[in-house]
Each structure stands twice: as C-alpha cells, then as structure tokens.
Design goal:
With about 425 residues, the chain is of the alpha/beta class. Helices cover about 40% and strands about 10% of the residues.
Length: about 425
C-alpha cells in the first residue's frame, strides 16, 4: 500500500518501520528539520533498538517531504502526532491533530482511509476528525473512511511490539473497519475490533492509566512502609513472592510522554466526578514523588554551595528498555528545580543525546560515571538502566566520607552489596531521615 504518515516522531517512525518491513511504501510528512535531517541519513532522531537497521535496509521505500504530492495515489493516511497538554494546564491540546488534517487538503478526496493513531480524549475522532474530513471532501460523515487505531507500544521495544501485539482497530462504518483490519493484518497476526471509535479511544487511555495507577499503589505502599520503620521494597517483594493474588509494582518514577498526561486526557470530559477524582489522585501521587526526592536531597545535602557537587545520572525517562527520550522525564524535572535553587549539578545519561542534555542548561554533561562523581558529595541514579548494575565501588574510593548514592530504582546491584558505599533507594530513603 501507499501510506501517508503525518508526523515522524516516535510513534510515526516506528509505525513506518514496521510497515516498511512488510513491503509498504511510506510517504512521511514532518516539519521538524532535525528529524528530517536524521532520516535523510537513514537514522532516527532517538535511540530505539534495531530501528536504524530497518531504516537503512528499506530506505528506497521511505519518502520524506514537506507535503503530500497530488500526483500520488494514496491508500491510507496515518496521523501519529502527539497530543500534549496545553501549557500550564491539564487540558489536552488538539492543535497538532488539526494541523495534521490540514496537510491532507490537496490530496484527500474521501476515498482514502484516514487512521488516527494519536492518544486523544474520548469523542475526539468523531467530533473533530470526522467533521473536518467530511467538510474537506464534500462528502457526508457516513461516507468517508475513518479509523481509530491507537498505538500501544513501549519505548525500547516498539517495532517488535507493533508486529507481535494485537492491534486495536475501529471504524466509523463497516468499510473503514474492514480496511483498517486489512492494513494491520499485514503487520501483525491479530487485531481486536473495537465496537466504536470511542471504545478504541478508551482502550488506549485505560491501558496507560491502569499502569499509572498500579505504579501509584506501589509507590504509596513503599513510602507508607517507611513510616513504620520497614524497608518498603522488602515488604513488597515478600508480599508478592509465591502468592499469585499479589503483584504489587516496584516503586519508582512514573514518567514519559504518555503516562504523565494520559490520566488527564482520560478525565478531560469525564462526567463522573468521583471516578475522575479517584483516577487523578493516583496521578498526583506519582507526580509528588518528585517533591519527595527533592526534599530528601535538601535534608541530605543542605543548602546549595559551590563545593557541594551533585552528580546526576539517568536523565532519560526510563532505562529499561533503554531509550534516549527525555520527554516527561522525572529526572529532568528534578534537575531543573535543583538548578533553579542554585545547586551545583553535573549530568550524565547512557543513551540520551549529549546536546539535548546540554540544552537543558542545568549543568555540565559528562561521558562516564567515574569522572561524573569526582569530588561530588552525592550521586543520584534516577532511571533503571541495567548498566548501573556494572558500576564498581572502586570508582568511589576517592570520595569524601559523607558521599552518598541515591539509587531510586535499586539497580546498582554491585554497589548495594558493598558496605564501603552508602547507597539509599526509594525503599528506605525516608527511614534514614525520619
């Protein structure tokens, strides 16, 4: 098929890669010059295992331009742009979707399938996308072909999941549903039919909000345990062990470009105030974990001073699976606040682009942990990259006696087992300062 993809960010380019592997022709539209430059070099603008190899091996079928050609016959268009929250609010911003629809003005005639893959509040496809397209081509909303097929992949394994996971498909009519199924069955072995556009929108929001709320329970339990003088991580681990009815999540930051906002998108037009409050309490608890970490830093380090160097590693919003994505990162929020308060920071990440970290303006960027911690009083490990498990205590031998390590996720396994270094995790960080 000839497929137009609008937006070649994370969702767009991973969808394109999966489609390319199945022989489709991809015609991508992107306004970000950095993204276009990277794709011209047959690589993505972010780290994703195996993605660059796919782009390099299928570059003849990937076509990037500023607008769709009216001379090309398209079978489908896929909208993959983000739906961030409006600045300073918890309301979804649909301007990117509206701009995406505008790119179809010269090529859309109502006969092509238009797939919305973005995360949106319930009713968006029917209330925004359908009327716009119908007006664009002069046909009725019942005649045109629109599908809501949400993206549900995890960063760090997205291409594999696009092929392995069942895809949610829906349509505004039976023909749209058939065409959406036909497309996705060329990419995966199973599709799940949603009964309506609204159900498909809701399924995606449920998936992410469920994860957000489950993580909130894990965080709350771990913090609560410490008020009783109990290591929260150990309590959770033993509660889960061998007991099938208990699967409490490990504590840690709940961040990233999806989980930090999707509870707000779900509740955007929700009528039941009690359910809305219940969902948002979990979201706000996860957000407050940032405040708790900053509180711990202040209790541990004291007021800012030039000779009090804080080394921070793990700025990508997660480390397992690995990603270079800084969007929605709790670590980025933490360093910005500490920097604004005058703390002297050094920064490091195993995968994030060095220039992107420098652009944050929060401190010098280092290439390795050994030089990062030289003469520092604190090392903060803020994501769960498995590389931290390989750190050896000898790189901290020159540190002053008061040197501490805050390993939020408890992933620096070698250090946790070494009594020569003082390591604190989220499971016990408030027991020591109580």
């Amino acid at each position: 098929m000839n497929i137009g993809v609008i937006g070649l960010g994370y969702v767009g380019i991973t969808f394109a890669a999966a489609a390319l592997m199945k022989g489709h022709q991809i015609f991508g539209i992107e306004v970000n010059q950095h993204i276009k430059d990277c794709l011209a070099d047959n690589r993505a603008h972010f780290f994703e295992p195996g993605l660059n190899e796919i782009l390099q091996g299928n570059n003849s079928n990937l076509h990037i331009s500023n607008k769709f050609s009216s001379k090309k016959v398209f079978d489908a268009f896929v909208i993959t742009v983000g739906t961030p929250l409006k600045d300073g609010t918890t309301m979804p911003n649909f301007e990117y979707i509206k701009s995406s629809l505008e790119t179809l003005r010269e090529v859309y005639d109502g006969s092509q399938l238009v797939i919305l893959r973005s995360t949106v509040s319930v009713g968006t496809t029917r209330k925004i996308v359908l009327p716009f397209l119908a007006n664009l081509c002069g046909k009725s909303e019942q005649e045109i072909l629109v599908a809501m097929c949400p993206e549900r992949t995890v960063e760090g394994n997205a291409v594999n999941e696009l092929i392995e996971l069942p895809q949610i498909v829906s349509g505004n009519n039976s023909k749209s549903l058939v065409l959406a199924k036909k497309l996705f069955l060329t990419m995966t072995s199973k599709v799940i039919e949603a009964s309506s556009l609204e159900e498909a929108e809701l399924i995606k929001l449920y998936c992410n909000t469920y994860r957000d709320m489950m993580f909130a329970i894990g965080n709350a339990f771990v913090i609560a345990a410490q008020t009783f003088g109990v290591d929260g991580g150990e309590a959770v681990k033993k509660a889960n062990e061998g007991y099938r009815r208990c699967n409490i999540s490990q504590a840690g930051f709940v961040a990233g470009p999806c989980l930090e906002k999707d509870a707000y998108i779900l509740t955007n037009n929700m009528q039941d105030e009690e359910v809305k409050k219940f969902i948002l309490q979990a979201r706000k608890y996860n957000e407050n974990l940032i405040d708790k970490v900053i509180e711990w830093v202040k209790l541990t380090i004291g007021k800012p001073a030039k000779d009090k160097i804080i080394a921070v590693s793990g700025l990508a919003f997660k480390g397992n699976p690995e990603t270079s994505d800084l969007r929605g990162s709790a670590a980025v929020k933490i360093i910005r606040r500490l920097s604004d308060e005058g703390y002297n920071l050094r920064l490091h990440d195993f995968k994030a682009d060095k220039k992107e970290i420098e652009a944050l303006g929060c401190g010098a960027v280092y290439d390795d942990v050994a030089t990062l911690v030289d003469n520092a009083c604190l090392l903060m490990i803020l994501n769960n990259n498995r590389s931290y498990g390989k750190l050896e205590a000898k790189i901290f031998e020159k540190q002053r006696q008061s040197f501490k390590i805050l390993d939020i996720w408890g992933v620096a396994s070698n250090l946790l087992q070494d009594e020569t270094v003082d390591v604190v995790t989220i499971n016990n960080m408030f027991m020591r300062n109580k």
